[in-house]
Specification:
mainly alpha; 9 helices; about 0% strand
Length: about 180
């Protein structure tokens, strides 16, 4: 019920929080903590710190997806009174914010894998994603045309899915 209400209040009402720079926090909560941590808690009835780190890691990558979208639309959003984190920061600092969120996500993924270490294979699955994420960050730095964010947006969605699945497969499938 909270998820439905929050999705409506994101863009509708007197004070839609998606237009007030709160979209990133919403994504972290719903596409990080609730989707990862909530699912884990539903099945196990516990919420260990390792899952908190994983939830934060996945949530930060999802924030990065939103941030690319907001960097692409920064001028149009401003004209229409939508104030996103990217719009508030400006393109230069929005790119830095993006880079930091992806790097922090990777570091939290390392921490998660370290804390739940079961075997070498989980590291292989995790590490395979890192070169693609770094390549993505390099491209983000040099984008000048807002339309060029579209390709990186699509790529980061796929990378986020791959990252999530790789960590899950490495942690669960190869646990012995």
């Amino acid at each position: 019920m909270i998820c439905i209400y929050s999705s409506i209040k994101y863009s509708i009402g007197t004070y839609p929080y998606g237009y007030l720079g709160m979209g990133d926090l919403s994504v972290l909560i719903f596409f990080g903590f609730i989707s990862i941590g909530g699912s884990y808690f539903l099945y196990t009835k516990i919420f260990p710190k390792e899952i908190f780190f994983l939830s934060l890691s996945i949530g930060l990558l999802n924030i990065s997806v939103l941030n690319i979208n907001n960097m692409r639309d920064i001028d149009n959003d401003y004209k229409n009174g939508k104030y996103t984190v990217a719009g508030i920061l400006g393109i230069k600092y929005a790119k830095i914010y993006h880079i930091l969120s992806v790097i922090l996500s990777i570091l939290l993924g390392f921490l998660f894998n370290f804390l739940i270490y079961k075997n070498f294979y989980q590291w292989i699955f995790f590490i395979l994603n890192i070169p693609f994420l770094i390549q993505h960050l390099k491209k983000i730095i040099y984008i000048n045309n807002p339309k060029d964010f579209n390709y990186e947006l699509k790529k980061l969605v796929i990378l986020t899915f791959s990252y999530s699945m790789s960590i899950g497969i490495g942690a669960l499938y190869f646990s012995s």
